[in-house]
Specification:
With 791 residues, the chain is of the alpha+beta class. It has 29 helices and 23 strands. Strands 15, 16, 17, 18, 19, 20, 21, 22 and 23 form a 9-stranded mixed sheet that branches. Strands 11-10-9-14-13-12 form a 6-stranded antiparallel sheet, sandwiched between helices. Strands 3-2-8-5-4 form a 5-stranded antiparallel sheet, with helices on both faces. The longest helix is centred in the middle third of the chain and has 30 residues. The protein starts with 11 loop residues before the first strand and ends with a helix.
């Protein structure tokens, strides 16, 4: 190309001209400052022999011909004092032709190499004609159509790392002059154009090719915005559901951080922090790595980190930077497991940056290098501007993950029971159909009429008493441990405050023995946390009774901050009982569904409760007969006996030997059951049917009429009913199970004291026969079993 206008599709005729700049110097000739005036005269004198520099030219070769004069004319724009600092060029608009530069810009290009081609990024090739038209609208008609976009150069540095330079154009020295081809633009034209930005033919009709003269040049002020661009890129490249499966995600992230930290040798890893379990977990996805976990999927935080790093990351949410891992390996002890792990992976320097919000740590960003000292506490500070965006992305990712988890839980754990799923599916289809037809629609109430209920529970007997005993024992131990230390403290230093603490401890011990109340535990815990623990920490700091106090704190639970021994045994026992009984019931239920489909749900409390409903409405098909109800009742009674047997066979596995008692509630009338959308569970419908729910909630605490004996008793199964026909039915089942040696011949029929709004209840209580395990042919009552176990 010899001429600027060769093959140029533009509304402009381009000419390089220094007229506007020279006009400014003509003004400065009249300056009161003689030095400024003298310089202006010199510049004008230099240009005068070459009128083409003022009139303008389009021949590209003239830029080289007049290179010396042009450089002299531009001296104020390209200060020699700042030439090694400023990044600046003079160029021709709409062409990638630069004819004057600062030395720093020259050095940047020299570093990039001979083969590097300078290209303006973000400059639309197809839209240049329209952009030229908007410039005309602004210069000539004062219509400011904001089409500005940021323009950049991408230039590699000496290490091959791409650096981003933002270009700010200064058009002060440009002139736009309409030619005889120019068409006057009206407001109507502008209104039409702003609604047709992509209609190139319309724009050409309003601004014909070569209808305006563009004389002058542009100054480009260029700034290194690599850090800002890296942060911007991070925003769009952060962790998300889609990104995790992107094969280029980690590679792209590493490129961004390489630019930010000016390091070619950089690897990026991520590790999730699970606060609930206090473990580090791997981020799953294509190419994802974790330097903290290496080949593990999960690991305890305390096993992964040394104490100092644990404190920095998890408690203070501050970064950890290790600049020379080889050096640390040579001098470290066994307290730094993560350093050994990094060394094993060939890492020489690393930064662990906490991804944390106001709720604490969510994960760890890992930047690793195989070059010693490449990563350190200095460049770790550059992450300050980046981390808020990573935190926001991880928060969003965690929220999406939690929503997914909730969806899975709802599907897998609180799903509609298979026996009734068909009805929900039918209603959902109707709901969608009505919505698609544009109708206002509500999800209809799901109701199952004329179904028979069955309820049973295996309950831990005396759970409140056992819990209170465990609590008292723990409090006794902790109070006496503190008392021992205080007695020794008085011998070393006779302070009245020690005596006062001893007095209060003795008072608490007396109350535990004589009058343990609901708030006793709370008061004693507050005494320890607010006073005793503070005192002991002070005594530790001044090296008094150090061994004794360290031993005391070793017995205190780190999370609960109390002595948690007997209570822990109790809590673990209840959890194990519930888990094993629930699993056993679930296994047996699977077989029962094969006999005849029915609704089933269970709940864990201090024991395990279950509800069952059976009837025509549940099964969808017209196949129900009362024989299936009777069969399910017998199955329930038999399974409850089996669960009791299984429990006592595994009782020795539990930390605390607790007893259980079983109960079945019989309701002989069918009722209606509906699904409550607000609570996502089934409940009975109607006032009369609600009586069933009332009895369920209160009956296990009821007493035998005229006595202070509860109806449920260890070693016996209790069957509560109200109708004589139910009594006859269950006596037949009991007789059958006696023959199968599930139940003893010792049975009793008792009346229950009246419950609120419920009267006339009776109960059959039958002793359960136990055996000691598989293959055991001897059967025992509860009392006989306990005697045998103790022998």
């Amino acid at each position: 190309m010899k001429d600027l206008n060769d093959n140029l599709d533009s509304p402009f005729i381009l000419k390089v001209s220094f007229n506007k700049l020279l006009s400014r110097y003509e003004e400065l000739v009249e300056s009161d400052d003689k030095y400024i005036a003298a310089k202006a005269k010199r510049i004008l004198k230099t240009q005068k022999p070459f009128p083409v520099l003022r009139d303008g030219f389009s021949e590209i070769a003239l830029l080289e011909t007049h290179k010396r004069e042009i450089k002299f004319i531009l001296q104020d724009l390209f200060s020699e004092i700042l030439t090694l600092n400023e990044i600046k060029t003079a160029s021709i608009p709409f062409h990638n032709i630069i004819f004057n530069t600062s030395k720093r810009f020259q050095n940047i290009l020299k570093t990039a190499g001979k083969d590097f081609e300078l290209v303006v990024e973000n400059m639309p090739e197809d839209g240049r004609y329209i952009i030229a038209c908007t410039i005309i609208l602004s210069f000539c008609y004062d219509y400011n159509l904001n089409t500005k976009r940021p323009f950049f150069y991408k230039i590699p540095d000496i290490n091959g790392i791409i650096r981003h330079y933002k270009i700010l154009y200064n058009a002060d020295f440009m002139e736009i002059i309409p030619t005889d081809k120019a068409i006057d633009i009206t407001q109507e034209d502008v209104d039409e154009l702003i609604d047709n930005f992509d209609n190139i033919e319309l724009w050409k009709a309003k601004f014909p090719p070569q209808s305006y003269m563009l004389n002058g040049f542009v100054i480009s002020n260029i700034f290194d915005v690599t850090d800002d661009q890296a942060i911007s890129n991070i925003k769009s490249e952060l962790i998300g559901k889609e990104k995790r499966n992107d094969e280029n995600f980690i590679e792209s992230f590493e490129t961004i951080f390489s630019s930010l930290l000016s390091l070619k040798d950089l690897q990026v890893g991520f590790t999730i922090y699970n606060k609930e379990d206090e473990v580090f977990e791997r981020v799953y996805g294509t190419g994802m790595r974790s330097f903290l976990l290496n080949e593990l999927d999960v690991n305890s935080c305390k096993e992964t980190l040394c104490k100092w790093s644990y404190q920095q990351l998890l408690n203070e949410n501050k970064y950890v930077a290790i600049s020379n891992i080889d050096k640390m390996i040579a001098s470290q002890n066994d307290q730094m497991p993560h350093v050994k792990l990094f060394y094993k992976q060939g890492v020489k320097s690393i930064i662990l940056a906490p991804i944390a919000n106001e709720n604490g740590l969510m994960g760890v960003l890992e930047l690793a290098s195989k070059t010693p000292k490449a990563l350190n506490t200095i460049n770790a500070n550059k992450l300050v501007d980046v981390m808020p965006f990573i935190v926001a992305a991880v928060e969003r990712s965690k929220e999406e993950e939690e929503n997914l988890i909730e969806a899975i839980i709802q599907k897998e754990c609180t799903a509609i029971h298979p026996s009734v799923h068909w009805k929900f599916k039918k209603e959902a289809k109707r709901f969608i159909k009505e919505q698609l037809n544009g109708n206002q629609v509500a999800f209809h109430k799901i109701v199952f009429d004329e179904v028979y209920p069955l309820f049973g529970q295996i309950d831990i007997k005396g759970s409140s008493e056992a819990r209170n005993w465990a609590t008292k024992e723990d409090l006794f131990l902790q109070l006496n441990a503190a008392k021992t230390i205080l007695k020794q403290a008085i011998k070393l230093e006779k302070l009245p405050i020690y005596e006062q603490y001893l007095y209060r401890i003795d008072t608490f011990l007396d109350k535990l023995n004589s009058n343990f109340q609901v708030d006793s535990e709370q008061k004693i815990n507050a005494f320890f946390q607010n006073e005793i623990n503070t005192l002991f920490m002070h005594m530790l700091s001044i090296k008094k009774l150090e061994n004794e106090i360290v031993s005391y704190f070793e017995g205190i639970d780190e999370k609960l901050h109390v002595l948690y021994k007997h209570r822990k045994n109790y809590d673990e026992t209840v959890t194990l009982i519930n888990k094993r009984m629930a699993n056993l019931l679930d296994r047996k239920q699977t077989k029962a569904q094969k006999m005849y489909p029915h609704f089933f749900e269970r709940f864990k409390t201090d024991g395990v409760e279950h509800n069952m409903y059976i009837g025509e409405a549940i099964t969808k098909e017209k196949s129900f007969n009362l024989i299936y109800l009777y069969n399910l009742r017998l199955w329930q009674l038999q399974v409850m006996c089996e669960m009791e047997n299984d429990y006592y066979q595994m009782q020795s596995d539990f930390p605390v030997a607790l007893d259980v008692a079983s109960m079945i509630l019989v309701f002989n009338q069918p009722l209606s059951v509906s699904f409550r959308m607000d609570e996502k569970q089934f409940d009975v419908d109607g006032t009369y049917n609600a009586r069933y729910e009332i009895v369920k909630k209160r009956v296990d605490k009821a007493y035998i009429k005229g006595t202070t004996t509860r109806i449920t008793e260890k070693g016996k199964i209790t069957i509560v009913y109200s109708q004589k026909e139910d009594e006859r039915e269950y006596l037949k089942y009991i007789e059958f199970l006696q023959a199968k040696q599930y139940l003893d011949t010792d049975i009793e029929i008792v009346e229950l004291e009246d419950l609120q709004a419920v009267t006339g209840l009776k109960a059959i209580r039958a002793k359960i026969l136990y055996n000691k395990g598989k293959g055991e042919k001897e059967f025992y009552t509860y009392n006989d079993l306990m005697k045998t176990i103790k022998e």
